[in-house]
Automatic annotation (TrEMBL):
GO terms (BP aspect): GPI anchor biosynthetic process
Keyword list, A-Z: Endoplasmic reticulum, Glycoprotein, GPI-anchor biosynthesis, Membrane, Transferase, Transmembrane, Transmembrane helix
Membrane topology: Multi-pass membrane protein
Protein name as it appears in the record: Mannose-ethanolamine phosphotransferase gpi13
Alphabetized Pfam families for the sequence: Phosphodiest
Amino acid sequence: MTSRTGAPPRTHKPFVAVLAVLGLLAAWHLAGLFMFTSGFLLQRVELHDRAPPCAPASRSWRMPTPPRGASSGDPVALEAWDKTLREQGECTLPPRFQRAVVWIIDALRYDFVAEALNSSTTPNAYMHNLLRTPAELHKREHGASIMAHFVAHPPTTTLQRLKGLTTGSLPTFIEAGANFGGAGRVCEDTWIAQVRAQPGRERLVFVGDDTWQMVFADLFDESYPYSSFNVEDLDTVDAGVEQRMLAAMDSGNYSLVVGHSLGVDHVGHRFGPAHARMPPKLEQMDRIVQDVLARLPDDTLFVLLGDHGMDATGDHGGDSELEVGSALWMYSKRPFDPGAHPTRRAKQSLTFFPDVSALLDVPTPTPAYQPFSMLPVAEHVEGHRSLPQIDLVPTLALLLGVPVPFNSLGTIIPEAFASTQQPLGHADSRLLRALRINARQVRTYLDAYATQSRDLAPFEAELRALWHRALQADAAWAESPSADTARAAATQYTEFTRAALDRAQSVWAQFDHARIALGAAILGLTVLVTWMLWRRAAHEESRVLARRVGRAAGYGGAIGMASGTLVGAATHLRVWEGMLAGAALGALVAAALGLQAPVEAATHAAPRATSPVSTWLAVAVVGVHAMLFASNSFTMWEDRITLALLAVVLVGRGVLGLGAPLVRWQYRIPFLAAVVLVLVRLTAMSRVCREEQAPYCVPTFYARHASTEFADNPAYALSGPATNSPYVMIATYVVAMAFADVVRRLLMPSRAHLGSAATMLQWIVRPAMLGAAGFWLADWVHGLERWDEPTRDTFLHIKMGVARAVLGLLVVGAVYWCYAPLSLSVLREPAPDTGRPRVMILGFGNALGSAFLLGGSLGFVFVFLLSQPMGQLALAACFVATVLLAELGDHERDARMLAAVKRAEAQVEPPTSRPLPTLLETVCLVLVGFVAFFGTGHQATFTAIQWRVAFVGFTHVTYPWSPLFVVLNAFGPMMALPVFGAVLLALWNVAPHRVTKDAMPPLPMRVPSDALYMVLGVLWYLGVLAVSAAGWAYYFRRHLMLFKIWVPRFMTAGLGLVVADVLAAGAIGALLLVASRTHRAFGSSFV
């Protein structure tokens, strides 16, 4: 009877047992991560209330008479005054504009629009003073123009920014994932919905980024969406926006036109801002601005804005200065001030109007002026006029004469309501009326929010006091109208709305402590059970271990699920969540108790000795790594610290090798350790830098030809442009050509470099690696500015064709590897004594290890294709280092075995079978994975995600391949290398057990059990890191740097652990194929 793989049951069953154990661990990991993240990264409470419809606002509004004592702060009188204003107050203003054209240029950074005055670093020819029209009109037409540094609340992903720009609410961190997963429909009130609800409205038209179609599907009468993820296409969306937006304006039949262009963002992602492709794109945007203005009616407001900025490599998602620093320009052909002469322009900027200046000088948590490093010279002494993006929401609503969206926390932009004819103190001052409406709406939202959540309870007394002070100041103005009392009221309303925003922002993520505790308990117990499994896997067969832990987990899980059902029904947890947590915890506790039983005697092989000293040294290294997350500084410098830990371990192993019992080992062990150390040090020379590492980190991953101009700029000190260096690409060709020879050389000591290995390395691995290097060369050539569009399209097709050819070649290689014989060759030579031919099987001593190495090389080439050139060099170095670690560990085990034999001869103790790899060897492999992660251009930050690899072989986002490519690019080096190396260590230089006619059947090989033992060591290390990252993220949950430091690191640890689980199952599956071929060739059996 055979299995589907062709292996007999005795070959098949041990590997199924290993997969069962790994599957159980993966289920526990997923359960723990789900429970923890569902409690730690919850969305804030969304209120689905709508601002009620308003009666048409009048040009003048009569202030009610306040109760006696309200102006002096009497609490009872203030409550009565509050009720009077709530019932009789305004909810909007007469519309200043009848319609609006809102154009979002994705990733429009502030310095792309503002005038770059001469300084040591500006203007920059790639990005400054190219989109010139807004700055020129802002200088010339003061009363009709507002320009500001437009600060986005992180995370700076498009979906979150659209929510903020339309609802006025704050984003939550976990929603960033929805930006790439198709979720995120907006159910909250928006200013667009308010415009749509107005009687007598005309068409609402949208064109551009299809994210709008996803989240605002029913708000527009006409929609023309374009795919938002094809970063290779720099022009199609912009051309569509230009055509459709201008056509809608030409028709004249519209109340609102919204456009969202993507070209600037795509240039940034593709090449970075400091690249020759950016100037023509910004000039195109400037030309479209001029076309819009030529069609702009007098009663229409034009708003040009960016949803976020971009960092020095063109990426975004985090909260660095360049990522959050977008631009805002509001313009009309008639002044914002209704009392101003329609053709005479104000003599000074609206920001310098006395009433506006007084409000901007009010000390609030949100500064009205900020410096911007890309524009060191500012128009104002205090810095650049700066405001949060959510301030646009109440401003637009009141300018268009609609109610402010219910959930908005923004404050009106005072420049849009300032007036010289009706200043503060005037009975009909639009500025004070707008602030009053704005503050009332925020107060209504806070009251409604308090009924649904206690997030803001700690600030309730403070906010109530600020609100009463504002009411008191307003009552004083009502009793004694004057400029001073009006300014005091306006100031108090501003302080209230800004304080509400600041306090809400400080609790923008709520924490469910019950879910967090359950998740942490599941993860922590999984780490404990993994450790216990690792210790027993050294002595018990895989089937025995799987049966023991499976039986205990089944009973415990059933009891836990029943208990969890009752707990879920009695608490705020959903019933199925209680069942999940109960089942996981019950199974883990039962498994831990079951693993306490005495070790079942091995049937087929003697237990192997392990080194307790090396085990505790490994535990110490893992403990140091895990404790890094207790400090934000250590977490930020994890790349340097992991390299240092690996170097210390390698030096220690090299020094200990000097005491090996044979002279050749005394040379080879230190030599191999030194070579690995050199390789990882070379890998560490490739890096990207976190923002927090400036100015002590110098990036090397991308080309740096433009970064010298910004040497004194902390932001640009982090990275050069996001283009690859041609010199590095030449080096990748050299590496791609030599890699097959290097692997062949590594197989030569075991004579396993002949046969199928030679065929695979020569005809699959080498051509595929050359193609992978060629893809990025074609990508670089495709991006050069010198080509016309037909030539560029030709290079695009060449690039796509090369990538698909490589992928096809890897598929062919995988099929060949599955069916090809082991890498063996037969040598016949005459015996020296008899002269009869003697047959030698070359490669027999490493038949399993060489076959697994060849299969792993195919996976390596796949990740090599998905890595950018500098990452390809780093990945190749770490792959070779991993194989050398297998060779180093083999020498160390041989030395320990020989030492045991010598002790036996001295009658100290009997020798055991060949020792197992130590936990310290496993720790080395995991640290090499981390060095590879950082060396391939990654950090535990969103901005380090290399989105461009989603388009390797595709011109558009293609599911599931594009997300898979991004995941493998990020986690392949960090997780695949340790898992591959762990299994390789269990197989390296392990000869098959042959079945011969004249001899007793050999003992079954412990290959499945040894592979499980090694993989469990990797998963234990990664599990410890995940628990530590989760625990310290929770501990620092109110820290200022939580969402910048600890949350990304926890997400990296959690996702990495899940990826490692999947890769471990894949590695065992590949090992099963190797074992099946070994059984067919030699009759070997496995336990």
